Amino acid sequence: MDYKRLGERIREERKRLNLTQAALAEAVDISDTYMGAIERGERSLTLDTLVRLVTRLGVTIDYMLANHVPDSDPNILAQFKQITDGQPLERKQLAIKVLRTIFSHDEGGGV
């Protein structure tokens, strides 16, 4: 298992949620020091800890453990779903508006 890559993905998802290492560590009942070591790929983690982390981060275990995340349409849609699951309706609607704005300005295309 590539613990360095796993740690990088955990860090990416934590930052996506605007969480500090301390806040995430507290949420999953581990120490700040251990959380930092996991993110740097210096420590392994138990399945129980991994489950608590992915649950709090709102992602799946297969996404976190995949060596490569393909850029296929179904995978992209699954990533959108992972990001938006658990978010309030207002935030989901805001995300749709942001995407529409990006796509309507990107290369002159429209939505």
Blueprint (SSEs and pairs):
Elements: H1 3-16, H2 21-27, H3 32-39, H4 47-57, H5 61-65, H6 73-84, H7 89-105
Helix pairs in contact: 2-3
Q: Gist?
A:
The chain has helices spanning 3-16, 21-27, 32-39, 47-57, 61-65, 73-84, 89-105. With 111 residues, it is mostly helical.
Explain what the structure shows:
Helix 2 packs across helix 3 (32-39). It is globular and about 45 Å long. It contains 7 helices and no strands. With 111 residues, the chain is mainly alpha-helical.
Summarize the biggest pleated sheet: none
**Roughly how many Å is the radius of gyration?**
16 Å
Number of DSSP-assigned strands: 0
Approximately how much beta-strand content do the residues carry?
under 5%
Segments where pLDDT lies below 50 for 5+ residues?
A: none
Q: Please, what is the oligomeric state? A: single chain
End-to-end distance: 41 Å
- The helix/strand series, from N terminus to C terminus, equals HHHHHHH
Mean pLDDT: 85
Globally, the shape reads globular
Question: What is the overall number of helices?
Answer: 7
Helix content: 55-70%
Class from secondary-structure proportions = mainly alpha
